[in-house]
Amino acid sequence: MGFFEKIKKGLSKTKKNLGNIFPVFRGVDEEFYEELEERMILADVGVETSVKAVEALRQRVKEEKLREAEEVHAALQDILVEMLEVGDSSLRLGTVPSVILVIGVNGVGKTTTIGKLANQLSEARNRVLLCAADTFRAAAADQLEIWANRAGVEIVRQHEGADPASVVYDGISAAKARGTDIIICDTAGRLHNKANLMNELGKIGRVIDRELPNSDKEVLLVLDGTTGQNGLLQAKQFKEIAGVTGIVLTKLDGTAKGGIVIAVADALQIPVKYIGVGEGIDDLMPFQPREFVEALI
To answer: Which of 144, 227, 231, 259 is the most exposed place for a label (fewest CB within 10 A)?
Structure first.
């Protein structure tokens, strides 16, 4: 099953809210715009982004004198794609080694995402090293080690409760010694204790900058697609804390309201880089804005 088919399946709940407006299209009037805006909000696109998208559509319909359902449909798709194209959706990993710091609250699928990403990068002939810097959650390192074994990559870990920054330091030292291409670091996700988390991520960042000052670094925020607008709040907080370079949206398995992807990209101007569409090791897919929107509407 390709990207489009998996996304279409994963967005089934969103399509019920958003995708069914055009089959019953009765013309472009105020009632149509109001209904579209309401459906977008129900699909977790968010109030601000929904209002912005509908206003842009209203303007485009007026300027281009659009009347037919197909024309309005295509115009809305173009607007949503533009909202999603806020930066490079590919990973910038040009140096040896490069670093991927994976952040997000507990339970969003960070460890699973790291395992899937490690598998992809390893299959692309990169030497990958996982760094178990979530030392506070019980069995976090054990779970990461299971994924390391599945993906056939190396892992550096310490005992539970160890200083996360020291684990990252050990990982960088090991990567330098072994000629590793990419280091992927897991981190704790205790957003309810924001001050401690900020200090922890700041310390990890300083270790990376000191030990690998010229290396490419991606900071990927993992969000659970089923959490809706709460995911947007998480993204805003983590952007303040960690300088996020990309979003990974997980659990787009039919239960999620996928409009949150548009809300996050538009509100924070951070590109979505991957989406998770299942539990399999190959169910993490590079994000393609046009195909995503076509599956959405």
So the answer is: 227
Alpha-carbon Rg for the chain, nearest whole angstrom, is 20
Q: List CB contacts of 235: < 8 A, sequence separation 6 or more.
A: 221, 223, 244, 247, 264, 267, 268, 270
Q: Measured between alpha carbons, how far is 181 from 126 in angstroms, rounded to an integer?
A: 6
Mark out the alpha helices in 152-228 (DSSP H runs): 164-178, 194-211
**Residue 111: its pLDDT value, please?**
92
The H or E element that residue 154 is part of is strand 154-156
Q: Which of 52-56, 149-153, 226-230, 270-274 has the lowest mean pLDDT?
A: 226-230
Query: What gap in Å lies between CA 82 and CA 266, rounded to an integer?
Result: 9
pTM for this prediction: 0.88
Nearest to 102 by CA among 10, 168, 173, 179: 168
Cβ 86 vs Cβ 265: under 8 Å: yes
| Mean pLDDT (whole number) for 135-159 | 92
For 4, the token pair is 């489009």
The Cα 101–Cα 245 span in angstroms is 10
Residue given tokens 């990461």 in the structure block: 144
Q: How far, rounded to the nearest angstrom, does the alpha carbon of residue 11 sit from its chain's CA centroid?
A: 15
Partners of 272 in the β-ladder: 247
pLDDT digits (tens, 9 = 90+) for 22-46: 555 567 788 888 888 988 888 788 8
Q: With b meaning 16 or more CB within 10 Å and e meaning fewer, what string describes 13-23?
A: bbeebbbebee
DSSP letter for 20, please: G
Residues 6+ apart with CB under 8 A from 223: 104, 108, 231, 234, 235, 247, 248, 249, 250, 260, 264
What is the tens place of the pLDDT at every residue in 179-235?
Answer: 999 999 999 877 666 778 888 888 999 999 999 999 999 999 998 877 777 777 878
